[in-house]
């Protein structure tokens, strides 16, 4: 399954398909993998292309990825890639996405991972 996931993540970044359909498929994949992805892929950077149109889908994906990393490793890899995403989500007009983003940042704080607490000010 891992090889298929790698190809899917490459496809996600280069998809020629409808963006809504594409992000929904990524959410499904993350559900199947428990939020596990190849963090070296460009998936995190690609989320920047989706924040404005699909903030709720982006935070749903990030929540799965981050909670998997923290649960598996006890820390967050590549936290600098997450900061612009979380900051963008906090600026979103989608209140539910903003609330979920705040909750995710607070979740990290509850694990003594205070990478993003300054974003809440």
Automatic annotation (TrEMBL):
Protein name in the entry: Uncharacterized protein
Organism: marine sediment metagenome
């Amino acid at each position: 399954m891992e090889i298929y996931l790698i190809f899917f993540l490459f496809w996600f970044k280069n998809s020629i398909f409808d963006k809504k359909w594409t992000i929904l498929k990524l959410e499904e994949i993350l559900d199947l993998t428990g939020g596990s992805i190849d963090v070296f892929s460009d998936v995190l950077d690609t989320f920047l292309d989706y924040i404005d149109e699909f903030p709720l889908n982006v935070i749903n994906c990030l929540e799965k990825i981050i909670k998997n990393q923290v649960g598996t490793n006890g820390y967050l890899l590549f936290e600098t890639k997450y900061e612009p995403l979380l900051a963008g989500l906090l600026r979103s007009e989608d209140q539910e996405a903003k609330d979920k983003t705040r909750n995710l940042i607070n979740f990290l704080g509850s694990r003594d991972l205070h990478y993003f607490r300054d974003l809440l000010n």
